[in-house]
């Protein structure tokens, strides 16, 4: 936090001293002196959505629309904050106008369906949860664990600051990784939609290359609204609304009893009948057999509120902007809520004419009310009470359970601060030197107390504090030269140094003295032998930290001629502390060019016909510091079910990482080779079409490979895996501005992306590896399920095929004979034994096609817009249905598998669609890993609809109080078209399983205003 | 445009100076950038920083013990290998345990598959091999770490390695032998026959035999009299580390398993004769079954044991027999996962006066082994170390040590060896002493002595992971049970090798019995 105070003090001084000084000199007309004075007008112009439907801009497509950073007005405007890299941000921008009216809080929500090739996933409707991701152009790494998700994420850049994410190292001590310990709030929620000027998606290295190895999976650049000179300008945005409650079919014990009775009648032994659960036996028990109306307590109409205001002003030599806002969001389910306070300050100064200073500071505080599910609670406590009786589906009983939450403490807070100071020295007319300092610091706090009434007589307390800090130092030298033939040469050289620190402390206490002491207090007497040991609770302490540094040097040359061609070359050298010393540095490069054929045609109907191409190689940042050490030692002694064991007889131990895998030497950087070819065309000033083909070959990926068990290691970490992603992104835009009579206007943007991935190599000469429930085969996709092919049911023992030679019946995993009531699974290799060799790759987790369709119609002062959003060609394992059928194992389990949340009493599958197998059979007939539970997960959603009216003239009357008064209503998550039998095809975890843990996305309705004074 | 720049030209000189200065400063900082990238990780230790001082030696040595404890605790391996498989216990509802009880070891349950996987033992062996190969480096750099200390530590590592091979030979029979760490270039070694594995185990154990002290951190120890062993006195090490008695006890077991009863009797006699040197003794019944007794407190009476030290926060939910055997009213769980049926209990404890279980004069059961005997599923509560030895089970975290051997075990083993060798009287004497400790009278000369010895083992060591292996030895001696003979000759007494293990090493062969 020390940085925060230093920075805040500095800012306050800046605002008050220089602000007043500069206002006195505000009339000077000063031109801006950055390299992009020429370059922006000369190269690709920015397309920046303005958040105003009345001033539409074209979406995600080339155009001549000039944003606010336009140079045309630069005779009078000073832009201290302009980023020289801006002309290289590419054409893929998100139309802010399309999303700024909706109650979205997180980046994946802003981006879903907004840009071709961009995949946004929320695994739950719980607002602000960390279980969401944005992925650009497919998976570059196969996803088996929470660690792997981090490897696929793009870099998020906020006003030039590369943001740091929460570390994955907390998973090291967790037995159940449903959520990371700590607040588990997404840091991609720190920016208020109304403070965003533009979002750029950088998909290839002509744009993302400058951001280095962290941007190897692409980058998302968020530009917030900055200070600008001019009259004091006040802007106010506000909305209010509510979540709807879903309609769903609830079930009670009678349903479940009838459901089970069929199986009991047909298959059970007397002992199994004796074990019939008690809660189902007593039909007079109204808690279970009465009305299943738990939904009345679970789903609730919840208000949504957001309000923010910004003030900007100042003169040409110094100006400022202040933003403050508050947002509350909710899912309307299980009392989950999200709150955010955000403030942002921007100060730009020009103390002397060759020196500009601009600074930015954004602070957010995030609060989250998390769900009350048993699953997530027990996943954290690792303590499983007797769960043979689930929560009752009756409202009164469930209400009693919820009343216990009055005693609960569950505080989840994140504080975030992103700051940046940028200085520019105009050394010569065309030569600029710009050092910058950026910091991203965030804290993650969670305090939990669960009373004994919720935990079988044992209460539980846990406290988590973690922080992530990234400081970045940049020095950039730019030389911009305009040649006589109207061509332009831009040279850039830069160095960048980033240092990351991530740390957490976590204390857990079991079984405190009573439910009134909710804090894990430690003994403060330093003479006592129990000094700093917990008083009352049975305590466990954990801490870990990691440091990483990245050093980069780069040079870029861009040469081109306005509206005709451009050629650019980027060379960079990156060194990371997380790579082994002998291969610490990696050379990356990118070459790109574009040519506009319309320069020759000069056809009237054609605005541009531009061919673009780029080819580059980029190192991929290692995500952990473990591999850098080579063969290493660590402290874990734990096993599955008891991860957190680190000592023997109180002595801390140190061993090789037998569980996570042998790490040898010679693990170099992995890298992407990315080729891109695109065509952009604009017709009649109204239509645009952009198509782009890409081929990204991710190479030398280090991966865990199962190894010889006699080594003691479960895996070896070997490099040499390669994954190719190829596909096409297509965007079609229509922009019919309102005609002179201001009647009808239409803006539309349709995007669709095709993506396919393929495993091209595995380490060594391996052709396939098995990792958990999944298998990777060279030549196949990396995101396929590995399943048994279901072909029916053995109705009688005689139907079970017998081996022709020795007459042995078909077996399961070599040991168990198939009997009547067991499933018929295809014996792929014909050895009369069903095992892993009979599993086949089926389906795929990532959609083959995805996209969005946005439309905005304007008529007079009214506008109507909607967004459709789709994923096609992907599959889901309906694990929720599998679990319901597999009730025998659920009843017997004593761990996570035994947990039945209140949502168990919701019917979200077709119980007639599955054969009636013998659920007691040892062949695991209802295992989720068979194509019986594989479903088509394609969907199209009407994601949002809004209606707005510009009231400026009406309200103003003769006075000019408002420069804009815009009111609107919206509806969200309105319709879903899908063949999927579960709740929502989006509520799927990263591994393609719908396990029923995600909270439904709420249907929300809001009304709001946007005011400019 | 030009006007603007003209205005600035007057200050150009100063501006350039500033700029040059900054660029120069930048160049100087860059010169040291490679060094900036050397960041030592905070949660791991690399090879360079390992083997530097006595703390590394201690942490590594404890790591070997810890891994072995994990290997025996995970999936409750110690008890499923030893007690659940075709033993006295029945499984109430869990079908994976039921399959283990009936010896259907290829049944498709994760538990059974995990127990078929020997990787966990090879992790211990790898750690031991690394210690044996590298700990000598510390002696050269840290004067605190004496050559003698290192020699004793290496002897422990070898004993641990030998013990692992012995355990694996008992479980799988034919097992590959790895005698070094093979850093990174892992060979695909094929299985050695059972007797070669046992011979290798014996060799490693014998290498430790004459090096280890009787007691660590004791000035009165005749081998290694030192007040502080790795920083602590005997109070911290009793019942924790392998001492000379431990290794003799393991060798006695190993020899008995190999059928070499003469050697077994020699080793067991050494244990009995020298137990006092490590302050090991017989356990009174009250202490044995107390929540804060034998299984909670580490003492050298636990000849070979792996503690979960409660005061060091090593208690756990998982990896204790209590997790399987306890239920209401001791812990909040409706029925125990494994239990011994009433009639079976009665048939095992058939003599009156037995302090472990008996019916008193009015026919009411008096027992310190069981709780709720009258219920359908009596709870086996001989071992019930809840948390720090509490009797309040509402929070079922356990800290009982895994005890592989105690003095009673070795005494019975010696009696068994003597009986096999024909020394009936000596054997009878030992058995009589043990029976007396448990309130039983001298046995009449007529019954089959060997049967009595094994019956006493069944009663005394119930729930300590011995039953299955005792049955194998018993049937090997007797040879009168045709079904069991087939099991022995066809290697059905062993576990199958996990498919995952076979898949990673094509030179391995599945046990033909399970093919």
From TrEMBL, chain A:
Subcellular location: Cell outer membrane
InterPro entries documented for this protein: Beta-barrel_TonB_sf (IPR036942), Plug_dom (IPR012910), Plug_dom_sf (IPR037066), TonB-dep_OMP_SusC/RagA (IPR023996)
UniProt entry keywords in alphabetical sequence: Cell outer membrane, Membrane, Receptor, Signal
Pfam families tied to this protein: Plug
Classification via SUPFAM superfamilies: Porins (SSF56935)
GO CC, any one term: cell outer membrane
Gene3D superfamilies (UniProt xref): TonB-dependent receptor, beta-barrel domain (2.40.170.20), TonB-dependent receptor, plug domain (2.170.130.10)
Limits of the TonB-dependent receptor plug domain: 101-219
Leader peptide range in chain numbering: 1-26
Protein name, as recorded: TonB-dependent receptor plug
From TrEMBL, chain B:
Family matches, as InterPro entries: SusD_RagB_dom (IPR012944), TPR-like_helical_dom_sf (IPR011990)
Alphabetical keyword list: Cell outer membrane, Membrane, Signal
Flavoprotein as UniProt keyword: no
Location of the protein in the cell: Cell outer membrane
Top-level division of the source organism's lineage: Bacteria
All copies of domain RagB/SusD, residue ranges: 404-514
A GO CC annotation given for this chain: cell outer membrane
Similarity field: Belongs to the SusD family.
Listed name of the protein: RagB/SusD domain-containing protein
